[in-house]
Amino acid sequence: MDPVMTPTFFPSSADAREALDAFFESFGFTTDADLSRLSAWVLGTRGQEARDAVELARARMEDWLSGVLGAGLARGGALLSRGRAAFVLCEAARWGADVLTLGPGEVPPELTRALRAAVPVPAPRELPTVMPEQQLVLWPLGELFRRWWRAGEPDVSISR
Fold first, then answer.
1. Number of domains the chain is built from
2. Within a domain: residue 138?
3. Nearest partner of 72 among 60, 58, 83, 61, judged by Cα
4. Per residue of the chain (160 residues), what is the pLDDT tens digit?
5. Cα separations (Å) of 120 from 7, 87, 90?
6. SS3 of 101, please?
7. Which of 15, 34, 44, 146 could form a disulfide with 97 if both were Cys (CB 3.0 to 4.6 A apart)?
């Protein structure tokens, strides 16, 4: 192996590579070079089963997202889904896979601002409430006629 190149993937499990490719494709990465780089970032030099590899990728992405987006986003428990939505909305995959291997302080400020601006706002939970009482007018033409008739009488309010 050339000493300048990093190993792109540990060849122990093709299933793990497929699972990682599917995971990172959901973030918008499509090129084989990016997917290989991200697989190497997650697995390093050790091979793992597909399920374990995806769990490790989730953990690495959550760590990266919490560092870039801030700890306040992690309170809702949906850091990965909201972070993925922000990542896809601002098309952060165009920065390449190398941006994920950087530490949170090393991410370009433009990307950090774009990611923070694209984070979806959570909707409030549904709560049962009481419907406000509404006035029912059965015959609107009759009400109009009554008001017109009362307008002709002196010293009578048409609103009653």
1. 1
2. no
3. 83
4. 444 444 444 445 778 888 889 999 999 998 999 888 888 888 875 667 778 888 888 888 888 888 888 877 656 568 888 889 998 999 888 888 888 888 777 888 898 899 888 888 877 888 888 888 887 767 778 878 877 877 777 766 656 5
5. 36, 11, 11
6. helix
7. 34
**pTM check: above 0.90:** no
> Helix or strand or coil: residue 57?
helix
Residue the block writes with tokens 């970032």:
41
Do you know the residue count of the chain?
Answer: 160
Measuring CA to CA, which residue among 112, 108, 109, 105 is closest to residue 86?
A: 112
Residue 21, domain extent: 14-118
User: For 116, left (φ over 0), alpha (ψ -120 to 50), or beta?
Assistant: alpha
Instruction: Find how far residue 43's CA is from the centre of its chain.
Output: 25
| CB-based contact 119:87 (threshold 8 Å) | no
Residue 23 is which amino acid?
A: F
HSE-up of residue 142 (Cα within 13 Å, Cβ side): 3
